[in-house]
């Protein structure tokens, strides 16, 4: 790939493609993460809510890779807000992973998943302050958020000391979130693109298939490369080794003309 890493505003580098583990059950996570590591992934993304941290951590510990050569992300559950609640959840995550430190810790969402859009500003601020402490104590190399809109980010900027280093959002062809991405770029917040394949729904697009054929790549490779070419960090997920390998083979660049075509596509999930 032309770009091997993104760099957070604190100087920490993060590999430019991550292996996502959302919806991978704990019993499958060990083999999936092992396959990813075996095929060159050095960035693994999990969360306490995924209920697979235990086997994600075990796969990393068992694999023949130095701890400093693999970047590990986990997340504070969306429904757990507050200072002490965050410290407790972090301890739970670290016990599950069996690691000495975390590379990136995110607030998973600004609201609980069963109450999307509700206002938890104060809880997010308290959680962020706890994460600042964990960061300042050297337990996390970088801290960030996920699913935060501009107003959620602004509340952190207005009330806390450290600007989030990352915002992990749903981002894919047809959902480029221009205003949010522009706000993140303005504040030097790296945008991570989760669900770069729109949870698989982009794969059946005849229009994308035709364009992928032009580049001699799979539709998935085209969709993941799109994220990179739009300066976002994709987090593809698969439990199949062939696709795990393909999803990292991105040594091509989409032309400006074709990017413009992709930019105009509508959201397949709308």
UniProtKB/TrEMBL annotation:
<dbReference type="InterPro" id="IPR020471">
    <property type="entry name" value="AKR"/>
</dbReference>
<feature type="domain" description="NADP-dependent oxidoreductase">
    <location>
        <begin position="17"/>
        <end position="265"/>
    </location>
</feature>
<protein>
    <submittedName>
        <fullName>Aldo/keto reductase</fullName>
    </submittedName>
</protein>
<keyword id="KW-0560">Oxidoreductase</keyword>
<feature type="active site" description="Proton donor">
    <location>
        <position position="50"/>
    </location>
</feature>
<feature type="site" description="Lowers pKa of active site Tyr">
    <location>
        <position position="75"/>
    </location>
</feature>
<keyword id="KW-0521">NADP</keyword>
<feature type="binding site">
    <location>
        <position position="108"/>
    </location>
    <ligand>
        <name>substrate</name>
    </ligand>
</feature>
<dbReference type="InterPro" id="IPR036812">
    <property type="entry name" value="NAD(P)_OxRdtase_dom_sf"/>
</dbReference>
<dbReference type="Pfam" id="PF00248">
    <property type="entry name" value="Aldo_ket_red"/>
</dbReference>
<dbReference type="InterPro" id="IPR023210">
    <property type="entry name" value="NADP_OxRdtase_dom"/>
</dbReference>
<dbReference type="GO" id="GO:0016616">
    <property type="term" value="F:oxidoreductase activity, acting on the CH-OH group of donors, NAD or NADP as acceptor"/>
</dbReference>
<dbReference type="InterPro" id="IPR018170">
    <property type="entry name" value="Aldo/ket_reductase_CS"/>
</dbReference>
<comment type="similarity">
    <text>Belongs to the aldo/keto reductase family.</text>
</comment>
């Amino acid at each position: 790939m032309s770009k091997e890493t993104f760099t957070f505003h604190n100087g920490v580098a993060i590999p430019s493609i991550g292996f996502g583990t959302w919806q991978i059950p704990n019993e499958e996570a060990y083999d999936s993460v092992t396959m990813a590591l075996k095929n060159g992934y050095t960035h693994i993304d999990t969360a306490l809510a995924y209920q697979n941290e235990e086997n994600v951590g075990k796969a990393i510990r068992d694999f023949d890779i130095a701890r400093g050569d693999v970047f590990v992300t986990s997340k504070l559950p969306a429904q757990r807000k507050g200072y002490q609640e965050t410290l407790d959840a972090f301890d739970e995550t670290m016990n599950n992973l069996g690691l000495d430190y975390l590379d990136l810790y995110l607030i998973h969402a600004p609201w609980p998943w069963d109450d999307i859009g509700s206002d938890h500003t104060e809880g997010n601020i308290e959680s962020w302050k706890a994460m600042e402490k964990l960061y300042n104590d050297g337990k996390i190399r970088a801290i960030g958020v996920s699913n935060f809109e501009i107003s959620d980010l602004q509340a952190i900027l207005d009330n806390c000391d450290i600007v989030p280093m990352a915002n992990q959002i749903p981002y894919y062809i047809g959902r480029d979130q221009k205003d949010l991405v522009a706000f993140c770029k303005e504040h030097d917040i790296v945008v991570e693109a989760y669900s770069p394949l729109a949870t698989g729904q982009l794969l059946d697009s005849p229009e994308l298939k035709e364009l992928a054929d032009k580049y001699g790549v799979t539709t998935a490779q085209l969709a993941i490369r799109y994220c990179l070419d739009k300066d976002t960090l994709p987090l593809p997920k698969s439990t199949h080794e062939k696709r795990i390998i393909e999803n990292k083979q991105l040594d091509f660049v989409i032309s400006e003309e074709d990017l413009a075509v992709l930019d105009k596509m509508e959201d397949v999930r709308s």
